[in-house]
Specification:
The complex is a heterodimer.
Chain A lengths: L10 H5 L3 H23 L31 H37 L1 H15 L3 H12 L3 H27 L3 H8 L4 H37 L11 H10 L6 H28 L5
Chain B lengths: L1 H27 L5 H6 L5 H11 L5 H13 L13 H36 L4 H15 L2 H15 L22 H8 L2 H37 L3 H8 L4 H22 L2 H14 L5 H10 L3 H29 L1 H5 L1
Helix pairs in contact in B: 1-14, 5-6, 5-9, 5-11, 5-12, 5-14, 6-9, 7-9, 7-12, 8-9, 9-11, 9-12, 10-11, 11-14, 12-13, 13-14
Classes of the chains: A mainly alpha, B mainly alpha.
Amino acid sequence: MSATVVAPPGVVQRALRGTGARFGLVIAALFLATTLFAPLLAPFDPYEQDLSNALSPPSAIHWFGADQYGRDTLSRILYGTRTALLAIIMADGLALLLGGSLGLVAGYLGGRVDAWLMRVVDVLLAFPYLLLALIIVAALGPSLTNSVIAIGIIYTPQYARLMRGQVLTVQAADFVVAARSIGANRMRVMLRHVLPNSFTPVLVLATLQSGAVVVETAGLSFLGLGAQPPSPDWGALLADGHGYFLTAWWIATFPGLAIFLVVVGFNLLGDALRDQYDPRLR
Amino acid sequence: MGSYAASRLIQLFFVLIGVSVVVFVTMHLLPGDVAQLLLGDHATNEQLQRLREQLGLDQPVWVQYARFMQDALRGDLGVSIQSNRPALADVLAAFPVTLQLALASLLLACLCGVPVGVLSAVWHGSRFDAVVMTLTLFGVSMPIFWLGLMLLVLFAAGLGWLPVGGLMPVGLDPPRLTGMSVVDSLLSGDLTLIGTSLRHMLLPAVTLASVPLALIARITRAEVMSAATADHVRTARAKGLGDARVVLRHVVRNAAIPIVTVIGLQLGLLLSGAVLTETIYSLPGLGRLMVDSILSRDYPVVQAGALFIALLFVLVNLAVDVLYAALDPRISRA
């Protein structure tokens, strides 16, 4: 992995100088603002049914049209940002916690512990990522929380590998050797010195993954294995649209556009951060 | 080379044991009472107890795992609750559909991605390059289930040029030889069948090819650009060779190894994407079978499908690694 370098100062600021990165930052900011202000921005209640308006096309009242129950598509998309953000925080958080801990322990303790933990990681990598998510959801049962847990688990190996690589680099640094030589115990060295200095690239990975998390959560919901009706989840909205694509193109078009925009934003942001960490790509 | 392949085979053995443990644990320990699930809510306690004994569910976990592995090695992965056929038979019947979709997409992704990437690198910094880079960013960012739906809205519902889904129209099936509709149609030699099967395959293949195509174009561009600055290329130019000859003979050839690897590693992406693509286009493939089985709680089929796909994935990755080592001797020596 590219990011096995201790973070140079000012790297984030430098990364955000490019046009692409700024564009990404604007999209990410708009996305976050929408999650906060969805109730103010949405013209209708996302759950409110109005059968007289069922499948009505985009108009001055319903900008993005209405679905099969007459619910306003725009309002449902705006509220859908909340599910998407929740998925990013929970799935990334879980992967960070599980993968980060695995990588930290494996890299720091080394030897047999390292060998065993990395074999566990290899086994998880032996599944195509969506298949692993499918069998985890099959076991836990279809729901938004379970689909997010599944996505967190499928990303764990990447975090574990990156963290392990970072820890191996950092623990050879002089300040770690110095801390050990003055008699600091293993736990203290690991948590106070190694962990904080290994963490930045892992956070960059989390940014890079955010777009993918949105797509995969929506994908599982689209398959009926994630968020369940009547939740205004982007994937579930697309699944509704799938049933009506011959007559009502707007139900699937706009939620998909929302996913696409958010993913482009996070990818641009992630690319810029990655380029800063990997001088070969500059 | 031989010792490299051998060490990879030993690793493979342990990975496969791990894969079987993961599938066994998720399918057997988490979902609650399998006997209740199989017999339904109206089963009596005696019936449940009898089935538990029959399935070995009253045994310790490691005994259950050993029995599961023994059966799996004999090709017995249980009976589907839905179809009442052996679970493995259902999986094998659906597999050709997924294989055909994956191969068609990979072919499309390579045929478009490699030339586009090479041209983008040769004309690096041009308007063409900028357009390609933007389109590939879109390609990797666009959720394929949305792209699939939009293609359906446009070409099937709007323009009416292509069918809305399925492998073939009802009643127009080629004689089943391989289970792959396009291949079977080609083998039948019937032009109507060939045309129909290709028309049904076009949108799914384009949908599934979008992400690998973008990735292949990007990696090709990067590799060709880095190979173009190598010393031997400068020498070739100094000798007075023409641009086309330098690019084809000296640059692309040296950039080929990493590109081939990336192409080989698209399989996981294709298998994952197939699940969504098959759902959008109502194709009776492995991905759709898995999702339907999860929704109807048909665990033997989920288990058989998961083991089959993981085994396939691991074997193809092994083949790519060994091939890579054969192409680049530095790897097996490392």
